[in-house]
Amino acid sequence: MTTDQTSEFRRALERAMRDFNLDPLSSTQIDLLVRHYEMLCKWNVKINLTRITAPMEAARFHYAESIFGSLLIGDARRLLDIGSGAGFPALPLAVLNPAVEVTALESNQKKSLFLSEVKDALRLENFKVERKRFEKFDHSRYDLLTCRAIERATEFIPTVIKSLSAGQRILVYCGSDMLDALSRRFKENFSIETKKVPAGASRLIALFSHTPANQNNR
To answer: Which domain CATH number covers 8?
Structure first.
């Protein structure tokens, strides 16, 4: 990891925030995300965290897209990121929203170790890591769940949505095809709000809010 690469990522991140029509980050927030990016690149040599590490691509696809989800967080105070991997969207969302308790749920031992090292290095009080499978984890205390870049997403995400209780919501980062399939399947008991990711081809974020069945029949 070179100084030039770090500087390039910093500039790319600031540009990506503008391109996504997002508010500028504070200098502290930028420093925290730059530190995460540096650690990601270092660890990625040893373990497969992500195939996208080039400064401009990482700034847009990983960081700005993750932060874009903040537009749909609303009044959430406890957020669970399922299959957090390298920390997306959990880490950027935690940096941007210090009042939100963000838990990165990652069952892979090496990836969860990376996330724990990130937490210690960045000293984020609102960020925690849990190394468990979703099926074995009690998610009832969280008012918002997030899913992004999940393996076997077409099978897994519907399972997560069906497990939500009334009042819980899930924020899904996905493509238009997956959104269409999820919308058709869950339109009866969920309200769905979507936003298109700027310059993201068919990338979208969708907020599924669980509503009582009789509310939809009024």
So the answer is: 3.40.50.150
What would the DSSP string read from start to end of 126-179? TEEEE-S-GGGS--TT-SEEEEES-TTHHHHHHHHHHTPPTT-EEEEEEEHHHH
Q: 101 in helix, strand or coil? A: strand
Chain length of the chain: 218
For the chain, how many structural domains are there in total? 1
Spatial distance between the Cα atoms of 90 and 209, rounded to a whole number of angstroms:
19
Residue 216's pLDDT band, with cuts at 50, 70 and 90, is very low
Tell me: pLDDT of 161 over 70. Answer: yes
Work out the number of other CB atoms within 10 angstroms of the CB of residue 123: 8
DSSP 25-93: PPHHHHHHHHHHHHHHHHHHTTS---S--SHHHIIIIIIIHHHHGGGGTTT--EEEEET-TTTTTHHHH
Q: Which domain holds residue 48?
A: 3-216
Element (H, E) at 103: strand 101-105
